Amino acid sequence: MDRAALADFLTRHRSALRPEHVGLAPGARRRVEGLRRDEVAHLAAMSSDYYARLEQQRGPQPSTQMLAALARALRLTRDERDYLYRVAGHSAPDAVTADDHVAPALLRVLDRLEDTPALILSRLDEVLVQNDLARALLGDVSAFTGLERSAAYRWFVHPERERAHYPADDHDRQSRAQVSSLRAASAELGPRSRAAELVRELQQRSPEFVALWEQHEVRRRFADRKTLLHPEVGAIEVHCQALFTEDGSQTLLVLTPAPGSEAESRLRLLAVLGTQRIAAGE
Residue ranges under compositional bias (Basic and acidic residues) (predicted)? Predict the structure, then answer.
């Protein structure tokens, strides 16, 4: 681990960003050029003290999970992310696996979406980043690890929990969509990928998955509209718009209600409820 190179790299990239570049309010007087250390720590979901010690060349070696969070917070390109891993004493992420590095171009769009739910997904339907309103609508999935990060895994292994977001009459369609999307991903990523591992695990754990997998449906697209259920505000019908990276590895999914609809009113109410929870520290 090259502490000096790591500290200099973090400091320079932090200084090059502005609050408005990452979806933060500029605020009044700012004493530092670029982002403050506490703002980077907030974006990376780590303590301010931990981040400060990295810039001061006295912190412990960061884990790969911490480095991935820093790469997202600092809006690093893939080459910059790989350099960050190496100066921190780790190998760059294996290109064979599904890529968790969030495309900076998608992040810039997500940063500007405040009044509509939006999230960035991997090929395996892993939520890489979600805005506050998406978190209020769908829950915070950042705590999931391993295969449980994939919505497809949770859909078939924990149906009582995952399917509660959808009306019962939409479950069959969602099941087929999950399987057909996973089949497309497994073909793209190959037999050594997390996609292949996910398929093998689901074949062991879900007869429903096995039956659908044998139908060989292949599709990678999002429904034009869907109805989502929230325990406090009820059913919300949204239109789905998907923006893909050039290589198709990640998707920015934006969920918008029809103007003037009941769904729009319920989303506004949900935004208020989410803000109140954050203020209350829940």
Answer: 166-175
Selected from 1.10.150.120, 3.40.50.1000, 3.30.450.40, 1.10.260.40, the CATH number assigned to the domain covering 3-87 reads 1.10.260.40
Residues of the chain with CATH 3.30.450.180: 104-280
204 alpha carbon, distance to own chain's centre = 27
pLDDT digits (tens, 9 = 90+) for 117-173: 999 999 899 999 899 899 999 988 877 888 999 999 999 999 999 999 999 999 999
How large is the average pLDDT for residues 195-223? 89
Q: Which CATH class is domain 104-280?
A: alpha beta
User: Is residue 280 over pLDDT 60?
Assistant: no
Tens digit of each residue's pLDDT (9 = 90 or more) over 212-249: 999 998 876 666 789 999 999 999 999 999 998 887 78
pTM of the model: 0.74
